[in-house]
Amino acid sequence: MSSFVLEASGLVKSFGQTHALAGVDLRVRTGESLAIMGASGSGKTTLLHCLAGIVRPDAGSVSFQSGAGRVEVTGLGERERSRLRREAFGFVFQQGLLIPELTAVENVALALMLNGMPRARAEEYGRGWLAALGLAGMEDRRIGQLSGGQAQRVAIARAQVTGAAVVFADEPTGALDSATSAEVMRALLDSTTGQGRTLVVVTHDADVAGRCSRIVDMRDGRIVGERVPARAGAGAGATAAPAATAPASAEAGA
Ligand SMILES: Nc1ncnc2c1ncn2[C@@H]1O[C@H](COP(=O)(O)OP(=O)(O)O)[C@@H](O)[C@H]1O
Ligand SMILES: [Mg+2]
């Protein structure tokens, strides 16, 4: 099995006259935390979306190494890509995308229920992840009754509960103060690379990127450099994660 969970080559994506990606080659190693940095408009989000099968590039390919073999993400149809995203990937965005009318545990459980797991079991897994992320006692609060950092940890729990092989985070700390940002980043690393999973994080925050194991720099739709931060790996492994991760959908009804 390849040690690269994702391999992208020759990615090109334009929006009208804007060349968001102008030829990107990138290999993401299994279990690494990769930060994608660059100025606003440099193509970070577009790259993340291509890697995750959200956006189809105009040219180039992305492949994903799953337990079952290599999947050519760019060759999949809309439905198959949607299924891949639900089952193999987790997503954390700057803010929002949690459902405000639902409680913390319902938001997390929803990710499993979409994969066919019955509610009671999904909520049990959800509670396990919330506790692991330091949110015990807050499971039944609605999102609006949580602080920004707490809500972001609910989003991390939701991204993780399905056992996602890769978590994609786009400016996950962009709306948080620096202390909360450090705490959220620690939770994100512990629940991904701390468990042997892979994290790809888009950020323009040097502190956030500095906690990752590798940084690539983008400019004008290209990768222009690659670095290993001085304090690579710091922050991983500090908190416990639940012993059991929810199974992928194939077993979800069992
Ligand atoms: N859906 C879209 N429609 C039109 N232009 C877009 C779209 N998405 C991104 N772009 C443009 O592509 C370029 C790269 O955008 P993006 O990948 O979002 O950069 P970043 O995340 O680094 O800020 C920018 O010029 C942006 O305006
Ligand atoms: Mg962006």
Automatic annotation (TrEMBL):
InterPro entries the record matches: AAA+_ATPase, ABC_transporter-like_ATP-bd, ABC_transpr_LolD-like, MacB-like_ATP-bd, P-loop_NTPase
Entry-linked SMART domains: AAA
UniProt region (Disordered), positions on chain: 234-254
ABC transporter domain mapped to chain residues: 6-245
UniProt-listed Pfam families: ABC_tran
Keyword entries, A-Z: ATP-binding, Nucleotide-binding, Transport
Transmembrane segments: none
Signal peptide: none
Superkingdom of this protein's organism: Bacteria
UniProt key word RNA-binding: no
This protein's name: ABC transporter ATP-binding protein
Native species: Agromyces lapidis
